[in-house]
């Protein structure tokens, strides 16, 4: 019997790359994409472990999982940074868009 490809290997890699590229969306959109990629990778790994002799592209699943993990970490770091900015500078100041006020608040925080 000819070996077949694991389902969703390309989707997992694509979602992982998209999660890295979209981490600037306040960390939320990329976080969702990375989580979906990791769930799909887990399902594909389970399928591979049931019958490894039937599939030949498990390396793509592992690569996609690593990319998704990198995206997940980047999104979490960016989300923590956004929460920190809101807590320290203030939501009203950030919403105002006044660059001088934002810079003034940042200088106060840094003690300059």
Note the run of SSEs as H and E: HHHHH
Count the E strands. 0
* Residues in helices, as a percent range: over 70%
| Radius of gyration from the alpha-carbon trace, in angstroms | 20 Å
The N- and C-terminal alpha carbons lie at a distance of: 71 Å
Note the beta-strand portion.
under 5%
Average the pLDDT over all residues and give the rounded result. 91
Shape: rod-shaped
Question: Could you describe the largest sheet, including whether it forms a barrel?
Answer: none
Kindly list the characteristics that best describe this protein.
112 residues; mainly alpha; 0% strand
Task: Note down, in words, how this protein is organized.
- With 112 residues, the chain is mostly helical.
- It has five helices and no strands.
- The protein is rod-shaped.
Helices, strands, pairings?
Elements: H1 9-21, H2 28-50, H3 58-89, H4 91-96, H5 99-110
Helix pairs in contact: 1-2, 1-3, 2-3
Could you write a compact summary of the structure shown?
The protein has 112 residues and is mainly α. The protein has helices spanning 9-21, 28-50, 58-89, 91-96, 99-110.
């Amino acid at each position: 019997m000819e070996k077949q490809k694991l389902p969703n290997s390309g989707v997992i890699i694509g979602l992982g790359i998209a999660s890295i590229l979209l981490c600037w969306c306040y960390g939320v959109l990329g976080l969702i994409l990375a989580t979906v990629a990791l769930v799909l990778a887990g399902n594909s790994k389970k399928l591979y472990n049931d019958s490894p002799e039937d599939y030949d592209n498990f390396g793509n699943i592992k690569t996609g999982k690593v990319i998704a993990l990198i995206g997940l970490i980047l999104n979490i770091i960016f989300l923590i940074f956004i929460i920190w900015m809101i807590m320290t500078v203030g939501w009203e100041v950030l919403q105002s868009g006044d660059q001088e006020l934002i810079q003034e608040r940042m200088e106060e925080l840094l003690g300059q």
